[in-house]
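Figure 3 (text version): structure tokens given as input.
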């Protein structure tokens, strides 16, 4: 196991409403980037305010930091987090071939969703004062099928699929060094190497998928992720660059 990164805060708390909310409350007073991990959440949430099932024993943590880049570049850290998650999973299980990355912010295990990423920023206007990267992992238990959107990728747990028993604290100690490695790469070399690594592990690249928003649905062949992090679909109307959507197979 890699050493805990120098200068990075580490908090493990028994219970909170959500690590995202806890990170937002603490952000103004934190001296530097900090991971906040909760063993229990009472009001966990995912993208677009959706409820997130978080049984005890699963992983819930948020990294709060003060980025210096414009908002569009800050948002590319979802890809940084995805690569770090994959590294942590491989370190925990030794099964590199079992994991894949799903645009924009999920990690799949044997085709099922094992982890999700949520980014939220704090600031005024175009300035990002704090970025919070929330991560949820089904370490021991996956949500019931009735708890997920119809047609969505079915959830799975790390334990059920691999037999690996990993505590939230141990998973944090795998994830934090992995994230620090990719964060250093991102800040030094930009998005290009992160994008290349992410695409090398992307699920359904070159295959037909559907991107849905609240008002639109676009189907096509998944061709690429551009330098702004947008999904690139080849459709009957030509190439479409999609900034935000839910993906269905």
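Below: residues designed for each position.
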């Amino acid at each position: 196991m890699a050493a805990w990164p120098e200068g990075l805060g580490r908090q493990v708390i028994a219970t909170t409403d959500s690590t995202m909310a806890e990170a937002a409350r603490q952000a103004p007073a934190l001296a530097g980037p900090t991971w906040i991990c909760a063993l229990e959440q009472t009001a966990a949430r995912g993208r677009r305010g959706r409820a997130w099932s978080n049984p005890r024993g699963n992983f819930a943590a948020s990294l709060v930091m003060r980025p210096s880049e414009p908002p569009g570049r800050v948002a590319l850290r979802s890809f940084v987090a995805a690569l770090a998650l994959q590294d942590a999973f491989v370190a925990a299980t030794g099964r590199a071939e079992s994991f894949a990355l799903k645009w924009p912010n999920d990690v799949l295990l044997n085709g099922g969703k094992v982890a999700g990423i949520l980014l939220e920023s704090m600031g005024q206007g175009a300035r990002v004062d704090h970025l919070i990267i929330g991560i949820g992992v089904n370490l021991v238990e996956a949500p019931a099928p009735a708890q997920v959107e119809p047609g969505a990728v079915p959830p799975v747990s790390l334990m059920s699929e691999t037999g690996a028993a990993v505590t939230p604290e141990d998973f944090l100690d795998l994830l934090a060094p992995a994230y620090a490695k990719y964060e250093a790469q991102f800040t030094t070399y930009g998005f290009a190497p992160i994008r290349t690594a992410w695409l090398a592990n992307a699920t359904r690249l070159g295959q037909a998928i559907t991107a849905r928003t609240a008002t639109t649905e676009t189907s096509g062949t998944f061709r690429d992720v551009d330098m702004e992090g947008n999904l690139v679909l080849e459709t009957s109307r030509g190439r479409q660059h999609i900034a935000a959507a839910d993906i269905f197979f």
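The two ends are 35 Å apart (CA to CA).
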